[in-house]
Amino acid sequence: MGCLVSQLAAKFAFFPPTPPTYQVKKRDDGKLVAVSTASSLPITIDDSCLDVLSINTKRGNKIVAFYLRNPCARLTVLYSHGNAADLGQLYDLFVQLKANLRVNLIGYDYSGYGASTGKPSEYDTYADIEAVYECLQTEYGISQEDLILYGQSVGSGPTLHLAAQLPRLRGVVLHSGILSGLRVLCHVKFTLCCDIYKNVKKIRKVKSPVLVIHGTDDDVVNWLHGNGLWKMAREPYEPLWIKGGGHCNLELYPDYIRHLCRFVHEMENMTTEVRLRKIRQTLALQKRWKCTSMCCADKCCIIKVRRPRWPQCLNLSCIKRPKCPEWKPKCSVRKPACPSCFIPSCTGLSCWCKKCSCRCTICSCLCAAKCSCW
């Protein structure tokens, strides 16, 4: 039953363009080129900036990938596109991102999309992105330390699947990401065993910085999906909520490329030493005590001790927090003025006997045993 529901969800999740917007042909020298189906012309004239790749996956499919190189790049972006699109439609966007972000960029078509073989499914997309990552390692020598994963809409599923397996990844971008497939289709707030793309669980395993970009007026994937992913990320980066943005038009807003450039620039400057320092600071903050009292702005303790710490106060609700420099004791119980006894009514005056005129240095409550006249 679970498999049937999963297959049904997959039918609603994947909408490859029909017919594809491009074809892959082999030239006489053996090099692959992408040709537009509308004009029968190559997608690009400059062959030096684009490599058209055919990659085998572990599930027996052959997927097509475009690798765009930038001579000034220090990082590489692995782009997983959204639904109802293929590489022929996204090539112009890839060129702009490559130039503005100053990165190498590789995009790929899922199984059953574009010129890729097979049929689209959740596990096929997982095999697709794993094959592309392996190609980056073997063919171009790109390690995970120099890689940023970018997932748009449905592409957030394979993106988080791979990101959860790469602890030294440079960064992750989730563009109109989803919490899970059924949460989009049925608007539920729980996870079933037959659900697809359970990003709500995988986001917690990602150890690299995560940038979330989402439109506030997205009528396909509600903004709450992006907000939920950002809140559950272990190392969230400042999110970008594009006011009035929909599901497929966020690239048209100036804030989109501006914020994305700042994120990539910070990831470029983040060395291993800086990254380790941030991780240590995060762990140290989690171990610090946080004060639950509103009087403490530093929030330095999280554990309430249910025994009195002040010897002058017997109220169990009065708690001393010695690690908080801003804390001042506030006890509603009246403290006795007499240091010798803990009777609130005692004023602490010394006792004077009228018969023998003796005086006791202790309070009158305890002087009966000292005076011989008693």
TrEMBL record:
List UniProt keywords, sorted A-Z: Hydrolase
Serine aminopeptidase S33 domain location, by residue? 73-179
| InterPro entries xrefs | AB_hydrolase_fold, Hydrolase_4
Keyword set includes Calcium: no
Lineage: superkingdom: Eukaryota
The molecular function terms in GO held by this entry are: hydrolase activity
Protein name according to UniProt: Alpha/beta hydrolase domain-containing protein 17B isoform X1
Q: Which organism is it from?
A: Salvia divinorum (Maria pastora)
